Amino acid sequence: MKSNDTPASELEALLAAATTAFARLPDVAFFAKDKNGRFIAANPAFLKLCGLADLHDLLGKTDLDFFQKKRAHLYMHDDRKVVETGVTLENQIEPMPLGKSTAALIMTTKFPVRSADGRILGLAGIARNLMETSARSSEMNEFAKTIDHIERFCRERFDLPSLAARQGMSPSKFERSFKKIFSMTPSAFHLQVRLRQARKDLLATGKSIGEIAFEYGFYDQSHFTKRFIAAYGIPPLRFRKMADAAS
Q1: I want to staple 219 with a disulfide (CB 3.0 to 4.6 A). Which of 116, 223, 225, 244 is the partner?
Q2: Which domains does the chain show, CATH number per domain?
Q3: Where does residue 230 fall: left (phi above 0), alpha (psi -120 to 50 degrees), or beta otherwise?
Q4: 3-state helix, strand, coil in the chain (%, to 5)
Q5: Is the pTM of this model over 0.85?
């Protein structure tokens, strides 16, 4: 690496091989962004997700150019956490971006891209449409109704025996099968959904933090805040203020 390489050119060089490799994986959407959230690389599967055919129509733009405003802000908040703290956000299960199929789910992982000396240059991510993943599509489809039920009724108390009965399994078998397929326990997914929906309400409503905490089944505002910080790196009130300032 030359000493006069800029972070931008260094990042582009690091991602060139990855982009070529992911172009050969049609069921995996790959993307990369600079530290300001601007797209700098993507494979054809991600372009399709954005409704594009040409990479040049993506480069230099942000999530706000392609996705509904509130959802784009959620994506951008996750990006900031990755580039500011260096954490990896793994296996985030959520509905497809608005405007796409509401029945499909995607699993997203985002991770920092670093230089040889450890500087964070940007981030990269991969996303899979879980219902189109060929290797385990039939197994995942078997859980589609359960996933939908958790999404629609996430405000309710987590009830493993009830969910297992809906799936026609014993609680232990249900938990093992779910974790094998989705790389997390049913209770962890239920918490992820509750936090994601609460995050939406922070952006879309004027409800107080306490009201949202109560609505999504947290013991109190302190419990909700602790869980929110563990998942997203900042307290819910600060997240709301940051989103308002960015809009």
Answers
A1: 223
A2: 7-132 (3.30.450.20), 143-246 (1.10.10.60)
A3: alpha
A4: 55, 15, 30
A5: no
